[in-house]
Amino acid sequence: MAREVMERHASDNVYLHRDFHGALSTGIEYLHTHFGEDAVRDYLRQFTVTYYAPLIAELRGEGLPALKRYFEELYAIEGGEIDIMLSNDELVLTVHACPAVKHMREHGYMVARLFRETTKTVNEALCTGTPFATELVEYDDATGRSIQRFYRRRP
Amino acid sequence: MISCTDFIPAYSELFRYLESRGGREAVIGFWNYLSDTFLGNLKSLVEANGIRGCWLYWSHTLNEEAADFTMELDEDAGEFSITMHHCPSKGRLLGLSHIEPYHDYCGHCDVLYRRVLDPLGYEYNLDMSECDRARCKLVVRRKS
After folding, report:
1. Chain B residues touching A14 at Cβ < 8 A
2. CATH fold of the domain at A18-152
3. Where residue B30 sits, what CATH number does that domain have?
4. pLDDT tens digits for range A8-22
5. B87 with B110: CB under 8 angstroms?
6. Which H or E run includes A86?
7. Which of A35, A127, B56, B128 sits between 20 and 30 A of A44, alpha carbons compared?
8. Of B4, B29, B55, the CB nearest to A17
9. Would the pTM of this model clear 0.90, i.e. be above it?
């Protein structure tokens, strides 16, 4: 019988634990079951305006290029294929397959019934207090493939 | 999509939200639910490999989480331990100036894994006395 020791420093590995997508999905399903659909949206809204406050401030100050940078970094880390079209007043993000949904499907994790809210509600909350609004133009629950549009509100 | 690298603050805020809606009972209820529905891989690894299952499970998760740790396995003694020098989750929360960690964030580690390992015949001891410095010590022992 073996005796083994493993020592690791934070710098030995890259921080990327994709199973966390499954844990978040489980949390959303729990909220949905026990507190209802509105609770899922309420939680995601609260989380977004709190945690992404620096990004929201950048969106307010700099505009859509801040959001473009954020999405490029996010999907580069997660390994998702995307296209972004940016103009002065509009950003359209096409996600060909959501890395979170892909990972959960491949590893047999439950995808929450309202998992799409991690895109829709989060995007809406990112626009809070900014001159921009958003719409989820398309979303495929099976793959997470989506088209997300951000645009300047009309005065 | 919320990146998996942003999961820890989302997790901490979920605990806070649940407590605001259903009190401590809702938080514990979620931890139990997560343990039952999400930790099937730990359960099957320990069922198939005994105490080595802990080694196999945490070898995967702690490396992907880029933790700073020493992990030890002594199969003859039926003992497994993790000395967490710097927890990537709590450390991440403590490093965020605009987010306050849920007051019992580390409590989930005590509930989730104990719930899997205790029924399989293992004692689960987690020393959380240094959690506020992102440190802890876990010892799992085969019950005699």
Report:
1. 66
2. Muramoyl-pentapeptide Carboxypeptidase; domain 2 (3.30.1380)
3. 3.30.1380
4. 998 888 888 888 899
5. no
6. strand A82-86
7. B128
8. B4
9. yes
